[in-house]
Write a structure and sequence with these properties.
The chain is an all-alpha fold and 66 residues long. Helix content is 73%, strand content 0%. The chain is built from 4 helices and no strands. The longest helix has 15 residues, at 3-17. The termini are far apart.
């Protein structure tokens, strides 16, 4: 799978599981482990914007900032 496709897939999965903070955290961790460093940086930027209005997902930012 191409890296852009993997990034897009990770984003799609995260959007679909954002109703459950534990599942979101789990899928975010998996995405970070499978993406290339450049894609992880892009995903980090996307997550920071995505969780702005979702306070229940703010704990997942700890994973990004670690």
């Amino acid at each position: 799978m191409k890296t852009r496709a993997m990034f897009d897939y990770a984003r799609l999965v995260l959007e679909n599981v954002s109703f459950d903070p534990k599942l979101f955290y789990k899928e975010l961790r998996k995405a970070i482990n499978h993406l290339l460093p450049y894609d992880v940086e892009q995903l980090s930027n996307w997550v920071n914007g995505y969780v702005q209005d979702k306070p229940e997902l703010h704990d997942s930012l700890n994973l990004i900032n670690a």
